[in-house]
Design goal:
Layout (H helix, E strand, L loop, with lengths): L12 H7 L2 E2 L18 E3 L17 E5 L3 H14 L4 E5 L2 H9 L6 E5 L9 H9 L4 E6 L4 H9 L4 E4 L4 H12 L3 E4 L20 H11 L4 H8 L3 H15 L7 H7 L7
Parallel strand pairs: 2-8, 3-4, 3-5, 5-6, 6-7, 7-8
Antiparallel strand pairs: 1-4
Helix pairs in contact: 3-4, 7-9, 8-9
């Protein structure tokens, strides 16, 4: 299993060979992840944590890598070799290439996507990709820390964002935590300042949606939420469905962590 929302999709060996996928050579145990697993949640990763564990419990068979710059693509391929020993890598040049994977029967465990990729269409293509691969980990990259861009990607279904200027160990840490089920934003240097820009977020919740979100963060059921707010079960279901759509997640348990990740929700 790949954390709380990701899961291995099954064997791809023969299909991958026929499709011409690259197979990364196995890494030694000490080259795996580099960080202990943390409880599922949100991390603003600054890459300062020590290295100490392997990725045995996070088996990844197929990785889809979509990057516009050859140098950075090569660097990411090497990073995949370390983070996901033995994984096969599909290199894509556009969102169209990625969109065609599901039609060909391929369901990668991990997507590494450059936000400058042709065909991104302001997050629309990313939303469609998330619908095709609900259990995959989707990590996006960009060369700047544009808060609007980051939040748009997170809202469209990305599980995490990594700045292209982030240190190698910071990238490895972020990807490992995302595979473990966290939502991670790894900006260049210290990422703790993201929440300070929350007012720039392209997400505005109604007062009622905020109330439902707070109760969801406490693990409240629809019945409990309905009672607490004095509204019907149907109304609660509609609000929960709206929040799932707004934050680009498919599980109610992921709504609050995603909201925290983009800095618009600080409820404990």
């Amino acid at each position: 299993m790949l954390g709380r929302r990701h899961g291995n999709q099954g064997p791809y060996s023969s299909m991958a060979r026929e499709a011409g996928f690259c197979s990364c050579p196995p890494s030694t145990p000490e080259q795996s992840f580099g960080l202990p697993l943390h409880p599922a949640g949100v991390t603003h990763d600054s890459g300062t944590q020590p290295s100490s564990h392997s990725a045995d419990s996070l088996h990844v068979e197929l990785v889809a890598l979509a990057e516009t710059l050859p140098l950075f693509r090569d660097a990411l391929t090497q990073l995949v070799e370390r983070v996901c020993p033995g994984a096969k890598v599909f290199h894509a040049d556009s969102m169209t290439d990625l969109a065609g994977l599901a039609e060909r029967g391929f369901h990668p465990d991990l997507f590494l996507i450059d936000l400058a990729l042709p065909g991104m269409m302001a997050g629309l293509a990313l939303s469609q990709l998330r619908k095709q691969h609900r259990r995959a980990a989707i990590v996006t990259f960009a060369a700047d820390d544009d808060i609007t861009l980051i939040m748009q990607a997170m809202q469209s279904g990305s599980d995490g964002f990594v700045h292209k200027g982030a240190a190698r160990e910071q990238c490895i840490s972020a990807i490992g935590r995302i595979l473990a089920g966290e939502f991670v934003i790894a900006q260049k240097g210290n990422a703790s300042g993201l929440a300070a820009h929350a007012e720039k977020a392209p997400i505005v919740l109604t007062a009622r949606q905020s109330e439902v979100l707070a109760l969801l963060s406490e693990g409240a059921s629809n019945k409990v939420i309905a009672r607490a707010l004095g509204i019907s079960h149907l109304t609660v279901r509609l609000h929960v469905s709206s929040l799932l759509r707004i934050f680009g997640v498919s599980r109610r348990d992921d709504v609050a962590p995603k909201a925290r990740a983009i800095g618009i929700f600080e409820h404990p």
